[in-house]
Amino acid sequence: MKVSNRISELPPYLFAEIDRRIEEKRDQGIDVINFGVGDPDLPTPAHIVKVLCEEAYDPSNHRYPSYQGMRRFREAVAAWMEGRFGITADPDREVLALIGSKEGIAHFPMAFMDPGDFTLIPNPSYPVYRTATTFCGGIPVEMPLREEDGFLPVLSSISGSTWHKVKLLFVNYPNNPTASVADHGFFEELVHYARKHEVVLVHDNAYSEITYNGYSAPSLLEVNGAMETAIEFHSLSKTYNMTGWRIGFAVGGKDIIAPFAKVKENVDSGVFNAVQLAAVAALEGPQDCVRDNIAVYQRRRDILLEALRSIGWEVPTPQATLYVWMKVPRGYDSHSFTGELLERAAIVVAPGSAYGSYGEGYIRFSLTLPDQRLLEGVDRIKRAFS
Ligand SMILES: Cc1ncc(COP(=O)(O)O)c(C=O)c1O
């Protein structure tokens, strides 16, 4: 049986070797602490769970949901965008419900890409931008994210002949995996290039609410004229600890949303209404649960930073995301240092190289482990490396 090229040509699974070594440790009875996965350990707030439970009993919610999402949900999204970013979005034509933002990001290129078209994708990045491109027969062109540029792509270095073939440009700020942020000025520059070259901007804003020390992440759609050339993906996963629920949304200009809605009409049948109504409770309800979450992550972040710096490792303080992105000590690469942490401290981290070649030389710690495990992990690192 021959599988499709799109499957056989997928890049190798870079965590495979690490996974094998974790298994080996566990078989030896060693307790491995995993700082590798970005999946909130805290529960979904009770007022959101309550709405799901109530709505699950309502038979009117048991039938196929609407493709674009319930109007009630789309209105809540539009109101949230207005309150949070001051953006006016038409709930009927500029908002779409998603089965998590990953689903949306993965399907969106089908609306605009033909075989041979280019996308611009950051390197390092969340891997879905690349696979979504290649699944459409498109060609991903990498934009290096370098520390000296604040992990922002240098748009002026992209040649005219490349722009000519580009259909979509993906960005993600606050960024996974580098934890870097972008300001309004960078978004203005993006919109300028996108309009000039007739490119659709795809902004993945999954971490917009996970920010620290008073920093507030902007929306790309705040830029004048962005709505006509951009789509922004949002997620309830990290904000409300709802990764398992599978709900997110897209907001963008009507000419971008309409073809995307067509794709989705043909590949899925929407999000369970009870989940959408619970998401309405999340967006419209009290937001102190978000502030409480952030306080937890910020405390964990500071404990981890203090420990890493006490060893003499240089690590910047992230302003956002669930991650700490650190350069590996001299003499190591991402892979060998990940191996060293596992061998000497039974700690798992994500090697930066798993997110692209420009992630080489870095590792990523996630802050989504329970406090007790985090403290134990930090203690092990200190003992093994001090
Ligand atoms: C950058 C980024 N975008 C999107 C997602 C997907 O989030 P979800 O599908 O849960 O909304 C993730 C999840 O880790 C992510 O890191």
Brief characterization of the structure:
The chain is of the alpha/beta class.
Instruction: Please give the count of helices.
Output: 13
The CATH superfamily of the largest domain is known as Type I PLP-dependent aspartate aminotransferase-like (Major domain)
Name of the top-level CATH class of the largest domain: Alpha Beta
- The N- to C-terminal Cα distance equals 53 Å
Number of E-state strands: 12
* 3D shape: globular
Order of helices and strands: HHEHHEHEHEHEHEEEHHHEHEEEH
The residue fraction in helices comes out at: 25-40%
Strand order of the largest sheet: 2-8-7-6-5-3-4
CATH architecture of the largest domain: 3-Layer(aba) Sandwich
CA-based gyration radius: 21 Å
Structural class: alpha/beta
Query: Which stretches are low in confidence, meaning pLDDT under 50 for 5 or more residues running?
Result: none
What are the distinct ligands in this entry? Answer: pyridoxal-5'-phosphate
Percent in strands:
5-15%
Q: Mean of residue pLDDT?
A: 96
Total number of domains: 2
